[in-house]
Amino acid sequence: MPGELAEPTGVLAGVDPADGGFAYAPSRESTDLVAIQDRYGLWIGGEEVEALSGRTITTTNPATEEPLAEVAEAGPEDVDLAVAAARRAYEDGWRDLPGRERAKVLYRVARQLQERARELAVLETLDGGKPIKESRDIDVPLAAAHFFHHAGWADKLEWAFANRTPSPLGVVGQVIPWNFPLLMAAWKLAPALATGNTVVLKPAETTPLTALLLAEVLAEAEVPPGVVNIVTGGGATGASLVSHPGLDKVAFTGSTTVGRQIQESLAGTRTRLTLELGGKAANIVYEDAAVDQAVEGVVNGIFFNQGHVCCAGSRLLVQESVAELFLDKLRRRIATLRVGDPLDKNTDVGAINSAEQLGRITSLVEAGVEEGGERWQPACALPEKGWWFPPTVFTGVSQSSRIAREEVFGPVLAVLTFRTPEEAVAKANNTPYGLSAGVWSEKGSKVLWTAERLQAGVVWANTFNKLDPTSPFGGYKESGFGREGGLHGLASYVSLGRR
What we know:
Strand order of the largest sheet: 14-15-16-13-12-18-19
CATH topology of the largest domain: Aldehyde Dehydrogenase, Chain A, domain 1
Strand content: 15-25%
Helix content: 25-40%
Protein backbone atom coordinates (compact mmCIF):
# COMPACT_ATOMS: atom_id res chain seq x y z
CA MET A 1 0.00 0.00 0.00
CA PRO A 2 1.56 3.36 -0.95
CA GLY A 3 2.56 5.59 1.90
CA GLU A 4 2.60 2.97 4.66
CA LEU A 5 4.97 3.08 7.62
CA ALA A 6 7.09 -0.04 7.77
CA GLU A 7 7.12 -0.16 11.56
CA PRO A 8 5.21 1.73 14.25
CA THR A 9 7.48 4.46 15.54
CA GLY A 10 7.55 7.86 17.18
CA VAL A 11 6.59 6.91 20.74
CA LEU A 12 6.61 9.33 23.64
CA ALA A 13 8.67 8.46 26.66
CA GLY A 14 6.97 7.47 29.90
CA VAL A 15 5.78 3.98 29.06
CA ASP A 16 9.02 2.02 29.33
CA PRO A 17 8.45 -1.27 31.23
CA ALA A 18 11.80 -0.74 32.95
CA ASP A 19 10.27 2.30 34.61
CA GLY A 20 7.25 0.36 35.82
CA GLY A 21 5.06 1.21 32.82
CA PHE A 22 3.27 -1.06 30.41
CA ALA A 23 4.79 -2.62 27.34
CA TYR A 24 3.63 -1.16 24.07
CA ALA A 25 1.90 -3.56 21.69
CA PRO A 26 1.21 -2.08 18.23
CA SER A 27 -2.35 -2.34 16.94
CA ARG A 28 -2.17 -1.24 13.34
CA GLU A 29 -5.27 -0.87 11.18
CA SER A 30 -5.17 -2.82 7.93
CA THR A 31 -5.20 -0.92 4.64
CA ASP A 32 -6.50 -3.88 2.64
CA LEU A 33 -9.97 -2.35 2.35
CA VAL A 34 -8.69 0.73 0.56
CA ALA A 35 -7.91 0.73 -3.15
CA ILE A 36 -6.26 4.00 -4.17
CA GLN A 37 -6.19 4.71 -7.90
CA ASP A 38 -3.01 5.96 -9.50
CA ARG A 39 -4.92 8.86 -11.04
CA TYR A 40 -8.24 10.60 -10.38
CA GLY A 41 -10.28 12.89 -12.60
CA LEU A 42 -13.02 15.36 -11.73
CA TRP A 43 -16.58 14.37 -10.83
CA ILE A 44 -18.92 16.34 -13.09
CA GLY A 45 -22.44 15.46 -14.18
CA GLY A 46 -22.41 12.12 -12.38
CA GLU A 47 -19.24 10.73 -13.92
CA GLU A 48 -15.48 10.94 -13.63
CA VAL A 49 -13.99 13.13 -16.36
CA GLU A 50 -10.50 14.31 -17.26
CA ALA A 51 -9.67 17.92 -16.52
CA LEU A 52 -9.64 20.16 -19.58
CA SER A 53 -6.73 21.98 -17.96
CA GLY A 54 -4.59 18.85 -18.33
CA ARG A 55 -2.92 19.61 -15.01
CA THR A 56 -2.60 17.34 -11.98
CA ILE A 57 -1.54 17.62 -8.35
CA THR A 58 -0.05 14.92 -6.14
CA THR A 59 -1.60 14.03 -2.81
CA THR A 60 0.88 12.73 -0.24
CA ASN A 61 0.79 10.64 2.93
CA PRO A 62 1.92 13.09 5.68
CA ALA A 63 3.25 10.24 7.82
CA THR A 64 5.68 8.98 5.18
CA GLU A 65 6.00 11.80 2.60
CA GLU A 66 5.23 9.20 -0.06
CA PRO A 67 2.81 10.04 -2.92
CA LEU A 68 -0.61 8.43 -2.83
CA ALA A 69 -2.19 9.48 -6.14
CA GLU A 70 -2.29 12.00 -8.97
CA VAL A 71 -5.44 14.13 -8.86
CA ALA A 72 -6.79 16.37 -11.60
CA GLU A 73 -6.43 20.11 -11.11
CA ALA A 74 -9.52 21.89 -12.37
CA GLY A 75 -9.10 25.08 -14.35
CA PRO A 76 -11.69 27.82 -15.03
CA GLU A 77 -13.11 25.88 -17.98
CA ASP A 78 -13.61 22.81 -15.77
CA VAL A 79 -15.36 24.93 -13.15
CA ASP A 80 -17.63 26.26 -15.89
CA LEU A 81 -18.64 22.71 -16.81
CA ALA A 82 -19.28 21.78 -13.17
CA VAL A 83 -21.46 24.84 -12.51
CA ALA A 84 -23.39 24.22 -15.76
CA ALA A 85 -23.98 20.58 -14.75
CA ALA A 86 -25.22 21.70 -11.33
CA ARG A 87 -27.55 24.24 -12.93
CA ARG A 88 -29.05 21.63 -15.28
CA ALA A 89 -29.60 19.20 -12.40
CA TYR A 90 -31.23 21.95 -10.37
CA GLU A 91 -33.61 23.09 -13.10
CA ASP A 92 -34.34 19.61 -14.45
CA GLY A 93 -35.87 18.24 -11.31
CA TRP A 94 -33.90 18.36 -8.06
CA ARG A 95 -35.42 21.66 -6.90
CA ASP A 96 -38.92 20.36 -7.65
CA LEU A 97 -38.42 16.91 -6.14
CA PRO A 98 -40.73 16.46 -3.11
CA GLY A 99 -38.91 16.71 0.19
CA ARG A 100 -39.72 13.12 1.08
CA GLU A 101 -37.94 11.96 -2.09
CA ARG A 102 -34.85 14.05 -1.34
CA ALA A 103 -34.94 12.58 2.16
CA LYS A 104 -34.79 9.06 0.75
CA VAL A 105 -31.66 9.98 -1.19
CA LEU A 106 -29.96 11.48 1.86
CA TYR A 107 -30.86 8.47 4.00
CA ARG A 108 -29.25 6.21 1.41
CA VAL A 109 -26.09 8.32 1.49
CA ALA A 110 -25.96 8.11 5.28
CA ARG A 111 -26.37 4.34 5.25
CA GLN A 112 -23.69 3.95 2.58
CA LEU A 113 -21.30 6.00 4.72
CA GLN A 114 -21.96 3.61 7.58
CA GLU A 115 -21.50 0.57 5.34
CA ARG A 116 -18.13 1.84 4.11
CA ALA A 117 -17.06 3.45 7.38
CA ARG A 118 -13.87 1.46 7.86
CA GLU A 119 -12.71 2.10 4.30
CA LEU A 120 -13.39 5.81 4.61
CA ALA A 121 -11.64 6.05 7.98
CA VAL A 122 -8.47 4.40 6.71
CA LEU A 123 -8.38 6.58 3.60
CA GLU A 124 -8.92 9.71 5.70
CA THR A 125 -5.97 8.78 7.89
CA LEU A 126 -3.71 7.92 4.96
CA ASP A 127 -4.43 11.17 3.16
CA GLY A 128 -4.62 13.53 6.14
CA GLY A 129 -2.35 12.11 8.85
CA LYS A 130 -4.90 12.10 11.68
CA PRO A 131 -5.00 9.12 14.09
CA ILE A 132 -7.20 6.27 12.89
CA LYS A 133 -9.17 6.23 16.14
CA GLU A 134 -10.30 9.81 15.41
CA SER A 135 -11.22 9.06 11.79
CA ARG A 136 -13.03 5.91 12.90
CA ASP A 137 -14.83 7.25 15.98
CA ILE A 138 -15.48 10.90 15.09
CA ASP A 139 -15.11 11.91 11.45
CA VAL A 140 -17.01 9.12 9.70
CA PRO A 141 -19.83 8.67 12.26
CA LEU A 142 -20.43 12.45 12.38
CA ALA A 143 -20.47 12.63 8.58
CA ALA A 144 -23.19 9.98 8.48
CA ALA A 145 -25.05 11.75 11.30
CA HIS A 146 -25.21 14.98 9.28
CA PHE A 147 -26.87 13.18 6.37
CA PHE A 148 -29.28 11.37 8.71
CA HIS A 149 -30.20 14.58 10.51
CA HIS A 150 -30.76 16.67 7.40
CA ALA A 151 -32.66 13.87 5.69
CA GLY A 152 -35.15 14.20 8.51
CA TRP A 153 -35.65 17.89 7.74
CA ALA A 154 -36.03 17.55 3.96
CA ASP A 155 -39.83 17.08 4.07
CA LYS A 156 -40.44 19.37 7.06
CA LEU A 157 -39.05 22.70 5.84
CA GLU A 158 -42.41 24.48 6.00
CA TRP A 159 -42.66 23.46 9.68
CA ALA A 160 -39.07 24.48 10.30
CA PHE A 161 -39.79 28.03 9.16
CA ALA A 162 -43.25 28.81 10.45
CA ASN A 163 -45.38 31.21 8.39
CA ARG A 164 -42.70 31.35 5.70
CA THR A 165 -42.36 29.62 2.35
CA PRO A 166 -38.84 28.19 2.03
CA SER A 167 -37.40 27.64 -1.43
CA PRO A 168 -33.89 26.55 -2.52
CA LEU A 169 -31.35 29.14 -3.58
CA GLY A 170 -30.00 27.32 -6.65
CA VAL A 171 -26.39 26.34 -7.28
CA VAL A 172 -24.02 26.43 -4.31
CA GLY A 173 -20.22 26.55 -4.44
CA GLN A 174 -18.64 24.96 -1.39
CA VAL A 175 -14.94 25.04 -0.45
CA ILE A 176 -13.78 22.83 2.41
CA PRO A 177 -10.49 22.63 4.35
CA TRP A 178 -7.95 19.84 4.86
CA ASN A 179 -8.41 19.20 8.57
CA PHE A 180 -11.75 17.33 8.36
CA PRO A 181 -12.17 16.52 4.65
CA LEU A 182 -15.02 14.01 4.81
CA LEU A 183 -16.81 15.58 7.76
CA MET A 184 -16.68 19.06 6.25
CA ALA A 185 -18.01 17.70 2.95
CA ALA A 186 -20.98 16.14 4.78
CA TRP A 187 -21.36 19.26 6.93
CA LYS A 188 -21.80 21.35 3.77
CA LEU A 189 -23.53 18.94 1.38
CA ALA A 190 -26.28 17.60 3.66
CA PRO A 191 -28.15 20.89 4.33
CA ALA A 192 -27.70 22.09 0.76
CA LEU A 193 -29.17 18.90 -0.71
CA ALA A 194 -31.93 18.62 1.89
CA THR A 195 -33.22 22.06 0.93
CA GLY A 196 -33.19 21.37 -2.82
CA ASN A 197 -29.95 23.02 -3.93
CA THR A 198 -27.27 21.53 -6.17
CA VAL A 199 -23.57 21.79 -5.39
CA VAL A 200 -20.09 22.21 -6.79
CA LEU A 201 -17.68 21.10 -4.06
CA LYS A 202 -13.96 21.83 -3.96
CA PRO A 203 -11.96 19.79 -1.42
CA ALA A 204 -8.57 20.91 -0.15
CA GLU A 205 -5.52 20.39 -2.34
CA THR A 206 -3.75 18.15 0.19
CA THR A 207 -6.73 15.94 1.12
CA PRO A 208 -8.98 15.23 -1.88
CA LEU A 209 -9.26 11.44 -1.68
CA THR A 210 -12.21 10.96 0.67
CA ALA A 211 -14.22 13.55 -1.27
CA LEU A 212 -13.57 11.55 -4.43
CA LEU A 213 -14.59 8.35 -2.67
CA LEU A 214 -17.69 10.20 -1.47
CA ALA A 215 -18.56 10.76 -5.14
CA GLU A 216 -18.66 6.99 -5.51
CA VAL A 217 -20.89 6.75 -2.43
CA LEU A 218 -23.24 9.38 -3.87
CA ALA A 219 -23.53 7.44 -7.11
CA GLU A 220 -24.29 4.23 -5.21
CA ALA A 221 -26.99 6.09 -3.27
CA GLU A 222 -28.55 7.18 -6.60
CA VAL A 223 -27.98 10.90 -6.19
CA PRO A 224 -29.05 12.22 -9.61
CA PRO A 225 -26.20 13.19 -11.98
CA GLY A 226 -25.08 16.79 -11.57
CA VAL A 227 -26.65 17.31 -8.14
CA VAL A 228 -23.17 17.07 -6.62
CA ASN A 229 -20.05 17.90 -8.66
CA ILE A 230 -16.52 17.72 -7.27
CA VAL A 231 -13.65 19.76 -8.68
CA THR A 232 -10.21 19.19 -7.19
CA GLY A 233 -7.27 21.56 -7.24
CA GLY A 234 -5.47 24.25 -5.30
CA GLY A 235 -6.13 27.87 -4.50
CA ALA A 236 -6.60 28.90 -8.13
CA THR A 237 -9.37 26.33 -8.54
CA GLY A 238 -11.08 27.60 -5.42
CA ALA A 239 -10.82 31.20 -6.61
CA SER A 240 -12.38 30.26 -9.96
CA LEU A 241 -15.26 28.56 -8.16
CA VAL A 242 -16.14 31.18 -5.54
CA SER A 243 -16.05 34.01 -8.08
CA HIS A 244 -18.15 32.18 -10.67
CA PRO A 245 -21.18 34.24 -11.75
CA GLY A 246 -23.32 31.12 -12.04
CA LEU A 247 -23.43 30.54 -8.28
CA ASP A 248 -26.28 31.58 -6.01
CA LYS A 249 -24.39 30.95 -2.77
CA VAL A 250 -20.85 30.32 -1.57
CA ALA A 251 -20.00 28.45 1.65
CA PHE A 252 -16.37 28.49 2.73
CA THR A 253 -14.51 26.97 5.65
CA GLY A 254 -10.83 27.86 5.97
CA SER A 255 -8.45 30.63 6.90
CA THR A 256 -9.51 34.16 7.77
CA THR A 257 -7.20 35.58 5.09
CA VAL A 258 -8.85 33.61 2.29
CA GLY A 259 -12.31 34.26 3.74
CA ARG A 260 -11.66 38.00 3.61
CA GLN A 261 -10.59 37.71 -0.04
CA ILE A 262 -13.78 35.81 -0.91
CA GLN A 263 -15.93 38.40 0.82
CA GLU A 264 -14.22 41.17 -1.14
CA SER A 265 -14.69 39.34 -4.44
CA LEU A 266 -18.42 38.84 -3.81
CA ALA A 267 -19.12 42.35 -2.53
CA GLY A 268 -21.81 43.98 -4.62
CA THR A 269 -23.05 40.70 -6.13
CA ARG A 270 -26.25 38.79 -5.43
CA THR A 271 -24.33 35.70 -4.32
CA ARG A 272 -25.03 34.77 -0.72
CA LEU A 273 -22.07 33.93 1.50
CA THR A 274 -21.34 32.14 4.76
CA LEU A 275 -17.85 31.93 6.21
CA GLU A 276 -16.51 29.66 8.95
CA LEU A 277 -12.96 30.83 9.57
CA GLY A 278 -10.14 30.68 12.09
CA GLY A 279 -10.21 30.69 15.84
CA LYS A 280 -8.13 31.16 18.96
CA ALA A 281 -10.39 29.62 21.57
CA ALA A 282 -9.92 30.18 25.28
CA ASN A 283 -10.34 27.32 27.74
CA ILE A 284 -11.09 28.94 31.11
CA VAL A 285 -10.36 26.83 34.19
CA TYR A 286 -11.67 28.19 37.49
CA GLU A 287 -10.22 27.19 40.86
CA ASP A 288 -13.34 25.18 41.72
CA ALA A 289 -13.17 23.05 38.55
CA ALA A 290 -12.75 19.27 38.71
CA VAL A 291 -9.05 19.37 37.94
CA ASP A 292 -8.58 15.92 36.41
CA GLN A 293 -11.66 16.33 34.24
CA ALA A 294 -10.49 19.77 33.12
CA VAL A 295 -7.03 18.41 32.28
CA GLU A 296 -8.61 15.83 29.97
CA GLY A 297 -10.73 18.55 28.39
CA VAL A 298 -7.74 20.81 27.78
CA VAL A 299 -5.75 17.94 26.24
CA ASN A 300 -8.66 17.07 23.96
CA GLY A 301 -9.20 20.72 23.16
CA ILE A 302 -5.73 21.35 21.77
CA PHE A 303 -4.19 18.00 20.78
CA PHE A 304 -7.22 16.48 19.04
CA ASN A 305 -6.36 16.13 15.33
CA GLN A 306 -2.85 17.52 16.03
CA GLY A 307 -4.43 20.89 16.82
CA HIS A 308 -5.68 21.13 13.22
CA VAL A 309 -9.04 22.38 14.46
CA CYS A 310 -10.51 25.84 13.94
CA CYS A 311 -12.21 25.69 17.35
CA ALA A 312 -9.15 24.25 19.13
CA GLY A 313 -8.70 25.41 22.72
CA SER A 314 -5.29 26.87 21.97
CA ARG A 315 -5.33 29.38 24.87
CA LEU A 316 -5.54 28.03 28.42
CA LEU A 317 -6.67 30.58 31.00
CA VAL A 318 -6.22 29.05 34.46
CA GLN A 319 -6.94 30.75 37.78
CA GLU A 320 -3.74 31.65 39.64
CA SER A 321 -4.66 29.79 42.82
CA VAL A 322 -4.64 26.42 41.02
CA ALA A 323 -2.27 27.17 38.15
CA GLU A 324 0.75 25.33 39.57
CA LEU A 325 -1.26 22.20 40.43
CA PHE A 326 -3.11 22.24 37.13
CA LEU A 327 0.01 22.67 34.99
CA ASP A 328 1.80 19.88 36.85
CA LYS A 329 -1.08 17.49 36.15
CA LEU A 330 -1.34 18.73 32.57
CA ARG A 331 2.33 18.03 31.84
CA ARG A 332 2.04 14.57 33.38
CA ARG A 333 -0.94 13.81 31.16
CA ILE A 334 0.71 15.15 28.01
CA ALA A 335 3.75 12.96 28.72
CA THR A 336 1.54 9.90 28.24
CA LEU A 337 0.36 10.89 24.75
CA ARG A 338 1.62 8.65 21.98
CA VAL A 339 2.88 10.36 18.83
CA GLY A 340 3.53 8.39 15.68
CA ASP A 341 2.00 6.11 13.07
CA PRO A 342 -1.54 7.42 12.48
CA LEU A 343 -2.75 3.94 11.47
CA ASP A 344 -1.87 2.55 14.91
CA LYS A 345 -5.01 2.52 17.07
CA ASN A 346 -2.89 3.52 20.09
CA THR A 347 -1.71 6.78 18.50
CA ASP A 348 -2.98 9.99 20.11
CA VAL A 349 -1.18 12.58 17.96
CA GLY A 350 -0.62 11.89 14.27
CA ALA A 351 1.28 13.63 11.50
CA ILE A 352 1.11 17.31 10.58
CA ASN A 353 -0.89 17.62 7.36
CA SER A 354 1.79 19.16 5.14
CA ALA A 355 5.33 20.47 5.08
CA GLU A 356 3.93 23.97 4.63
CA GLN A 357 1.82 23.71 7.78
CA LEU A 358 4.73 22.26 9.73
CA GLY A 359 6.80 25.26 8.68
CA ARG A 360 4.15 27.66 9.96
CA ILE A 361 3.88 25.86 13.31
CA THR A 362 7.66 25.82 13.72
CA SER A 363 7.92 29.52 12.86
CA LEU A 364 5.28 30.56 15.40
CA VAL A 365 6.82 28.39 18.13
CA GLU A 366 10.21 30.00 17.52
CA ALA A 367 8.55 33.41 17.70
CA GLY A 368 7.00 32.41 21.03
CA VAL A 369 10.45 31.61 22.43
CA GLU A 370 11.93 34.84 21.09
CA GLU A 371 9.13 36.84 22.74
CA GLY A 372 9.95 35.39 26.15
CA GLY A 373 7.61 32.44 26.43
CA GLU A 374 8.81 29.31 28.23
CA ARG A 375 8.43 26.27 25.98
CA TRP A 376 7.82 22.78 27.38
CA GLN A 377 7.72 19.59 25.32
CA PRO A 378 7.71 15.97 26.57
CA ALA A 379 10.53 13.62 25.70
CA CYS A 380 9.58 12.42 22.27
CA ALA A 381 11.21 10.29 19.56
CA LEU A 382 9.61 11.32 16.29
CA PRO A 383 9.70 9.20 13.12
CA GLU A 384 12.50 9.99 10.71
CA LYS A 385 10.15 10.42 7.75
CA GLY A 386 6.94 12.39 7.62
CA TRP A 387 5.90 15.72 9.11
CA TRP A 388 5.69 15.74 12.90
CA PHE A 389 5.56 18.18 15.77
CA PRO A 390 5.50 17.23 19.47
CA PRO A 391 2.81 18.46 21.87
CA THR A 392 3.98 21.85 23.11
CA VAL A 393 3.00 24.06 26.05
CA PHE A 394 4.02 27.70 26.48
CA THR A 395 3.93 29.40 29.88
CA GLY A 396 4.93 32.94 30.75
CA VAL A 397 3.03 34.14 27.69
CA SER A 398 1.96 37.76 27.32
CA GLN A 399 -1.31 38.66 25.64
CA SER A 400 0.56 40.54 22.93
CA SER A 401 2.64 37.50 22.01
CA ARG A 402 2.08 36.04 18.55
CA ILE A 403 1.72 32.60 20.12
CA ALA A 404 -1.29 33.93 22.08
CA ARG A 405 -2.89 35.93 19.27
CA GLU A 406 -2.30 34.10 15.98
CA GLU A 407 -3.92 30.81 15.00
CA VAL A 408 -1.12 28.21 15.10
CA PHE A 409 -3.32 25.36 13.84
CA GLY A 410 -1.03 22.84 15.46
CA PRO A 411 -0.43 21.04 18.79
CA VAL A 412 0.67 24.18 20.65
CA LEU A 413 -0.96 25.49 23.83
CA ALA A 414 -0.43 29.02 25.20
CA VAL A 415 -1.04 29.37 28.96
CA LEU A 416 -2.13 32.57 30.70
CA THR A 417 -3.38 33.06 34.26
CA PHE A 418 -6.09 35.21 35.83
CA ARG A 419 -7.30 36.17 39.30
CA THR A 420 -10.97 37.11 38.89
CA PRO A 421 -13.80 36.05 36.56
CA GLU A 422 -13.84 39.55 35.09
CA GLU A 423 -10.16 39.26 34.20
CA ALA A 424 -10.75 35.83 32.66
CA VAL A 425 -13.49 37.18 30.39
CA ALA A 426 -11.42 40.22 29.42
CA LYS A 427 -8.45 38.05 28.45
CA ALA A 428 -10.61 35.50 26.65
CA ASN A 429 -12.24 38.22 24.55
CA ASN A 430 -8.94 39.95 23.80
CA THR A 431 -8.61 38.33 20.38
CA PRO A 432 -9.72 39.14 16.85
CA TYR A 433 -11.42 35.73 16.70
CA GLY A 434 -14.72 34.59 18.18
CA LEU A 435 -15.45 30.99 17.26
CA SER A 436 -15.50 28.94 20.46
CA ALA A 437 -14.57 28.77 24.14
CA GLY A 438 -14.68 26.43 27.12
CA VAL A 439 -15.53 27.05 30.78
CA TRP A 440 -14.64 24.70 33.65
CA SER A 441 -16.31 25.14 37.04
CA GLU A 442 -18.47 23.13 39.45
CA LYS A 443 -20.83 26.12 39.79
CA GLY A 444 -23.45 26.35 37.06
CA SER A 445 -24.08 30.01 37.86
CA LYS A 446 -20.42 30.85 37.26
CA VAL A 447 -20.42 28.92 33.98
CA LEU A 448 -23.52 30.79 32.76
CA TRP A 449 -22.22 34.16 33.94
CA THR A 450 -19.01 33.58 31.99
CA ALA A 451 -20.68 32.18 28.89
CA GLU A 452 -23.00 35.18 28.62
CA ARG A 453 -19.98 37.49 28.45
CA LEU A 454 -17.75 35.52 26.09
CA GLN A 455 -17.67 36.70 22.48
CA ALA A 456 -17.79 33.24 20.95
CA GLY A 457 -20.24 31.40 18.76
CA VAL A 458 -19.97 28.18 20.77
CA VAL A 459 -19.24 27.88 24.51
CA TRP A 460 -18.75 24.44 26.03
CA ALA A 461 -19.31 23.88 29.74
CA ASN A 462 -17.10 21.29 31.46
CA THR A 463 -16.37 19.67 28.11
CA PHE A 464 -14.84 20.61 24.77
CA ASN A 465 -15.11 19.80 21.07
CA LYS A 466 -18.61 18.38 21.36
CA LEU A 467 -20.12 18.80 17.89
CA ASP A 468 -23.57 17.70 16.79
CA PRO A 469 -25.55 18.23 13.56
CA THR A 470 -28.54 19.46 15.56
CA SER A 471 -26.60 22.40 17.00
CA PRO A 472 -25.60 25.53 15.06
CA PHE A 473 -21.89 26.22 14.75
CA GLY A 474 -20.20 29.46 13.69
CA GLY A 475 -18.38 32.51 14.93
CA TYR A 476 -18.10 36.26 15.31
CA LYS A 477 -15.49 38.85 14.35
CA GLU A 478 -12.71 37.33 12.23
CA SER A 479 -14.11 33.84 12.76
CA GLY A 480 -16.72 34.51 10.09
CA PHE A 481 -20.49 34.78 9.91
CA GLY A 482 -23.43 32.49 9.35
CA ARG A 483 -24.16 29.20 11.06
CA GLU A 484 -23.90 25.56 10.02
CA GLY A 485 -25.91 22.77 11.61
CA GLY A 486 -29.33 22.91 13.21
CA LEU A 487 -32.15 25.14 11.97
CA HIS A 488 -29.79 28.08 11.67
CA GLY A 489 -27.72 26.12 9.19
CA LEU A 490 -30.77 25.15 7.13
CA ALA A 491 -31.79 28.80 6.90
CA SER A 492 -28.52 29.58 5.10
CA TYR A 493 -29.62 27.45 2.14
CA VAL A 494 -33.17 28.69 1.57
CA SER A 495 -34.96 31.82 0.52
CA LEU A 496 -37.79 32.59 2.90
CA GLY A 497 -40.87 34.22 1.41
CA ARG A 498 -43.89 35.24 3.51
CA ARG A 499 -47.12 33.31 3.19
